[in-house]
Amino acid sequence: MQRIIPMLLTSIVGVIAIASYFVPVAQPFQDRVEEWFLIVAAIAMVLGAASLLLHHLKAISNQEAGWGYSAVTVAALVITTTVGLLKLGAPPDLKHPELAWSGSYLAEGGGAWWIYTYVMSPIVATMFSLLAFYVASAAFRAFRARNFEAMLLLGTALIVLLGRTSDGTWLTSGVPADYPLATIPGLNVLIMSVFNTAGQRAIMIGIALGVAATSLRILLGLDRSYLGGD
Description:
mainly alpha; 7 helices; extended
């Protein structure tokens, strides 16, 4: 029964969610299911934060390798949660200036806004800027013209890179305007609008088929991995 009841609930909710797109009568049930999802997601977020906190506190207590990073993680979690819940520094709402907590916790000038603007955003920008070096290293290894496929990849990448700079326009500036595909910018537009779009659509179709197959397996009870255990 511990597995049958969750499987039945999952199947019933999934069928209601699918039926709401085709049967207007089922739309109120879909709205109620979405409310339940928000409640469960909020509970899962609290449990996830508690699990994260306990894991890093244990690492700090045992002074495991890298426990300093765990201390930074715990401090960031506690400070951000406290600032956000208490709306520290957040200005009151203009409609209700007499109420100190009437403003949004993300209002400009507040503590949560300051953390996001001056701590979170620079960290994210730094991480993405570091990825450029990994991309350059991977491109150097992948673009070695060892066979025809690698040569094709290398040529396409070179056209796209030059097509997005002024050098590509300068190199083919002598080509008549009647032959746009004979220029590097024209080839860049062709590659991005035709071949790249076709590849993206094929990938999206494959993802959609995979999602549909996995959803069907879950609705029929064939995939029980979400129940945990062995």
